[in-house]
Every structure is written in structure tokens, then in C-alpha cells.
Amino acid sequence: MLDLIFSAIWFILPAYFANTAPVIGAKIFGKYNAPISKKILGEGKTWGGFILGVLAGTLVGFLQGVILLGFLLGLGAMLGDMIGSLIKRRFGLKRGAPAPLLDQYDFLIIALAFASIIKTPTLAQLIVILILTPIFALTGNFIAFTLKLKKEWW
Ligand code: CTP
Ligand code: MG
Question: What DSSP character marks residue 45?
């Protein structure tokens, strides 16, 4: 059981790092960081965050010995996160407004879709990933909130 949990986290790890990197990047490079499209995606999706996210995923993949998988998970995570914001803006939700499930799963779905070009998790791993991701996402955001990296605790 523990083996399964660890192997599932190991598989999706580049996507988690990709999703976290922009939050830290925004704090460091905030001033120099331009939004990709204020109107369509909102101010929370920046070029710097996108690039940092893809790099973080690729780096983790490199350290795992699966650099291409890391790149695909990182790129997918960043695009999925952007699609989530696009949907939120279409529904008139302001930047940072909560969209339960969408906020926690947007990056994951597209990351898995991109990764599937070369590798898919087993069904058991997928179930573990689907259960753990919202828990990790919320915990991570809460930590980022307490560190003043994010304005919202969700
Ligand atoms: N971020 C970024 N560039 C990206 C993705 C994220 O700079 N491509 C940074 C932004 O500072 C953003 C933070 O990471 O505020 C957290 O990302 P997220 O929670 O996805 O954005 P929100 O601010 O909640 O905006 P949205 O309502 O669009 O989800
Ligand atoms: Mg958000």
C-alpha cells in the first residue's frame, strides 16, 4: 500500500513542483513579471510563472531520470492551470476567487494528458493521485498563505 502511494506521488511529482514554482516565483520576481493576458486569464497567470513551472517540472524529471516526462508534466500542469483560470474568468470569477475542484484538478488533468504521450500511471496509481492531489493542493496553499506567499488560504 505504502509502495503504491509513494510510486503514485513519484510519478506526478514534476507536476506538483511545476504548480508550486510560480507562487514562489511571483514573490521573488513579482515586479518584473508580466501577465500573459489580463483579460482572458487574469493577472495571476504570468509569463515568468509559466516558464518557471515548466522548468521546475523538467528539473524534477531530470533528477528522476525521466526528463521528457518531467517536461510534459510541467508543461501540461502550466497549461491546465491556465485553462482553469480561463474558465474562471469566463464565469466572471475574479483572480483568486475559489473554484472548488477546478482549482485543485485543472493542472493535474492536462499534466496527465500530456504525460500519457509517453507514460500513463497504473489505475491504482491514478486513483491515489486523484485522492491525494486536492489534499496536497489545499495543504500547500495553506502553507503558502501562512508564509505570505499567497493572499488566499485555499
Ligand atoms: N502564478 C504565476 N503565473 C502562472 C501561474 C501562477 O505568476 N502561470 C502565480 C500568481 O502569483 C498566482 C499564484 O501563482 O496568484 C497562484 O496561482 P493560482 O492559485 O493558480 O492563481 P490565482 O491567483 O488563484 O488566480 P486564478 O483565480 O486565476 O486561479
Ligand atoms: Mg487559483
Answer: -
